[in-house]
């Protein structure tokens, strides 16, 4: 039995959830998101809560049970509160700036990196060494943050590079005489 799947998803005030078979649509103050579940789960709305149950006793149905519930929970939370990921840039001459719908990164390469910001995300640079990514879609926020971090991942000797604000970099000791 799925420990995640058996819990119902509470729908807060201001969020409208519509269920059409396996298509779930959530609309709130931060936008509208859709999720198409597999035929292995049944989704129902009762008493302001969304419940997910497996359609059969198969292994795939049990696996998709928790997955579908988690995706619906992330949709509901995304359109009501949103998701945010913060990045920090460490290194001499490393900086970031938002120019229109592109993120301009200077990360020690011979050229600047102009990275387009996807639709539905808000990217803010409070200062040159801090990037804040926010949006309603958890997957999109996390993917964009991972791609920006991947431009220059933090290295273990001096800690230079792009890292998540809550990430701990394990530092190595340098060469000895």
UniProtKB/TrEMBL annotation:
Presence of keyword Ribonucleoprotein: yes
PROSITE patterns, alphabetized: RIBOSOMAL_L6_1
Domain of life: Bacteria
Entry-linked Pfam families: Ribosomal_L6
An annotated GO cellular component: ribosome
Keywords: Ribonucleoprotein, Ribosomal protein, RNA-binding, rRNA-binding
Gene3D superfamilies per UniProt: Ribosomal protein L6, alpha-beta domain (3.90.930.12)
Domain annotation Large ribosomal subunit protein uL6 alpha-beta: ranges: 11-82, 91-164
InterPro entries cross-referenced by the UniProt entry: Ribosomal_uL6-like (IPR000702), Ribosomal_uL6-like_a/b-dom_sf (IPR036789), Ribosomal_uL6_a/b-dom (IPR020040), Ribosomal_uL6_bac-type (IPR019906), Ribosomal_uL6_CS (IPR002358)
Assembly, per entry: Part of the 50S ribosomal subunit.
Family stated for the protein in its record: Belongs to the universal ribosomal protein uL6 family.
Annotated NCBIfam families: L6_bact
HAMAP family listed in its UniProt record: Ribosomal_uL6_B
Its biological purpose: This protein binds to the 23S rRNA, and is important in its secondary structure. It is located near the subunit interface in the base of the L7/L12 stalk, and near the tRNA binding site of the peptidyltransferase center.
Name of the protein in its database record: Large ribosomal subunit protein uL6
Taxonomic lineage of the native organism: Bacteria, Pseudomonadati, Pseudomonadota, Alphaproteobacteria, Rhodospirillales
């Amino acid at each position: 039995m799925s420990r995640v799947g058996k819990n119902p998803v509470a729908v807060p005030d201001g969020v409208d959830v519509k269920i059409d078979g396996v298509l779930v649509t959530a609309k709130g103050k931060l936008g509208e998101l859709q999720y198409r579940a597999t035929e292995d789960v049944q989704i129902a709305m009762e008493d302001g809560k969304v419940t997910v149950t497996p359609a059969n006793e198969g292994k795939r149905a049990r696996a998709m049970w928790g997955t579908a519930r988690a995706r619906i929970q992330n949709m509901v939370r995304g359109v009501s509160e949103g998701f945010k990921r913060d990045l920090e840039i460490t290194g001499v001459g490393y900086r970031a700036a938002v120019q229109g719908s592109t993120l301009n990164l200077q990360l020690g390469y011979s050229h600047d990196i102009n990275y387009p910001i996807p639709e539905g995300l808000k990217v803010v640079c409070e200062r040159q060494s801090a990037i804040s990514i926010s949006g309603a879609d958890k997957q999109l926020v996390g993917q964009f943050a991972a791609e920006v971090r991947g431009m220059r991942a933090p290295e273990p000797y001096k800690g230079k590079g792009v890292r998540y604000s809550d990430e701990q970099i394990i530092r190595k000791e340098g060469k000895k005489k």
